[in-house]
């Protein structure tokens, strides 16, 4: 997004000012400047390699700085990496805000970790290589580091996306604690070796096994990226085959994610629901094109063929391991609460929760999108229709979640057919909502 919300800009400015305060007073005479410069360069190099090659943050060097340097000096270690590394081309203002955020957030986190480490006597334990007593202040520093990172992350999510603070913070600490603890252990080993007679060169050797483990981690994420590319290719194929719904799948994915967030689902499940929304109509690849493009009502036999598309879609994504729940949504997104849907006529709680989410998102986008045969309904009219059908066709909880999300974030539908290539006769409508098959 080129424009950063005003609340998010104000939040970033406040965090930057707080980070600047943490640099004062900088103990000039007691700061080992050569060590600070070496750690800053090393962190910048690691950030460049890890983010470019593997993706994700890399904290061992930062935590080493927290274990070795006074807190104001430790806060300087991440600054060169953030201020001079390239950022995504999001527009000049957005790029500047993002760069300041990437400088201030880790600076505050490493300052907090250093404060806790020094307060617990960790500096003397590191110098004396006093194990296992060095683990206690190091553990406190890692916990402080995680708490600051997750607190700031939750704040920026709340400011930028309008998510309530409690939801913005939910799950962040639990997901960050284990990986940061591993980074903290590596940082402690580096700090102890740094203070040993072997010096900084020996400390650098600790990064080798970390890089190997990061490479394994990156391979996993590359596999997920390959799956995402497959998903996008499937969606593009559906858009080409059934052109009147061009872009519909992406928007259903977006609306599904909005509902999932409003229901308080964690980020991983929100992502699965987004994929489910994107792929909900992928089974149309198994439906003859002539039926998808047919003008006017379908015969009973043709409708039975159309109604096989959820089962086709379920089979198509069977081999994608991280889409377990999404498969259920693809299979059951045309079921109705009163049992009159398809393919199996499930009713009420028999319909998986994910499918009830996608059903509402699908109907909402269909009603608010301009098609070749009709104009889009206003958002208010679509919401009224969903509320009217809640309890019979749609889960009222999902409808309410979408309404709340729309009030907070808004909705920007787009034209989904570039040209009226299939004539002007309307496609057969689904009773209740007026949504297309």
Automatic annotation (TrEMBL):
Residues 417-437 are annotated as: Disordered. It holds the Pfam family HD_5. Residues 223-418 form the HD-GYP domain. InterPro entries: Cyclic_di-GMP/3'3'-cGAMP_PDE (IPR052020), HD/PDEase_dom (IPR003607), HD_domain (IPR006674), HD_GYP_dom (IPR037522), HDIG_dom (IPR006675). Residues 245-367 form the HD domain. The chain crosses the membrane at residues 9-26, 32-50, 62-83, 131-152, 172-194, 200-218. The keyword Coiled coil does not apply. Keywords: Membrane, Transmembrane, Transmembrane helix. This is HD-GYP domain-containing protein. It comes from Streptomyces pluripotens.
């Amino acid at each position: 997004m080129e424009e950063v919300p005003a609340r998010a800009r104000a939040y970033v400015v406040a965090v930057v000012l707080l980070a600047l305060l943490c640099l004062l007073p900088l103990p000039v005479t007691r700061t080992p400047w050569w060590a600070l410069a070496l750690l800053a360069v090393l962190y910048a190099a690691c950030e460049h390699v890890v983010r470019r090659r593997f993706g994700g943050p890399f904290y061992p060097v930062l935590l080493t700085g927290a274990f070795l340097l006074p807190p104001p000096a430790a806060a300087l270690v991440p600054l060169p990496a953030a201020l001079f590394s390239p950022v995504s081309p999001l527009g000049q203002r957005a790029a500047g805000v993002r760069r300041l955020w990437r400088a201030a957030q880790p600076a505050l986190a490493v300052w907090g970790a250093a404060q806790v480490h020094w307060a617990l006597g960790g500096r003397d334990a590191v110098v004396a290589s006093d194990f296992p007593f060095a683990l206690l202040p190091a553990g406190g520093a890692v916990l402080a580091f995680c708490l600051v990172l997750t607190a700031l992350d939750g704040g920026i999510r709340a400011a930028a996306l309008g998510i309530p603070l409690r939801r913005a913070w939910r799950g962040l600490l639990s997901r960050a604690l284990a990986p940061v603890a591993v980074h903290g252990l590596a940082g402690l080993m580096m700090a102890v070796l740094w203070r040993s007679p072997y010096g900084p060169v020996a400390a650098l050797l600790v990064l080798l096994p970390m890089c190997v483990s990061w490479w394994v981690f990156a391979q996993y994420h590359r596999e997920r990226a390959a799956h995402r590319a497959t998903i996008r290719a499937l969606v593009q194929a559906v858009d080409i085959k059934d052109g009147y719904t061009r872009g519909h799948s992406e928007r259903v994915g977006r609306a599904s994610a909005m509902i999932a967030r409003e229901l308080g689902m964690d980020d991983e499940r929100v992502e699965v629901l987004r994929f489910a929304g994107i792929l909900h109509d992928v089974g149309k690849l198994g439906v003859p094109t002539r039926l998808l493009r047919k003008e006017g009502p379908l015969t009973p036999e043709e409708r039975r063929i159309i109604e096989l598309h959820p089962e086709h879609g379920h089979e198509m994504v069977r081999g994608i391991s991280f889409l377990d729940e999404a498969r259920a949504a693809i299979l059951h997104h045309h079921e109705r609460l009163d049992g009159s849907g398809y393919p199996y006529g499930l009713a009420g709680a028999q319909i998986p929760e994910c499918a009830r989410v996608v059903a509402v998102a699908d109907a909402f986008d269909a009603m608010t999108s301009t098609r070749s045969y009709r104009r889009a309904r206003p958002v208010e009219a679509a919401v009224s229709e969903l509320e009217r059908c809640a309890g019979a066709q749609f889960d009222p909880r999902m409808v309410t979640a979408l309404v709340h999300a729309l009030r907070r974030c808004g909705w920007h539908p787009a034209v989904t057919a570039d040209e009226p290539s299939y004539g002007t006769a309307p496609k057969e409508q689904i009773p209740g909502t007026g949504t297309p098959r």
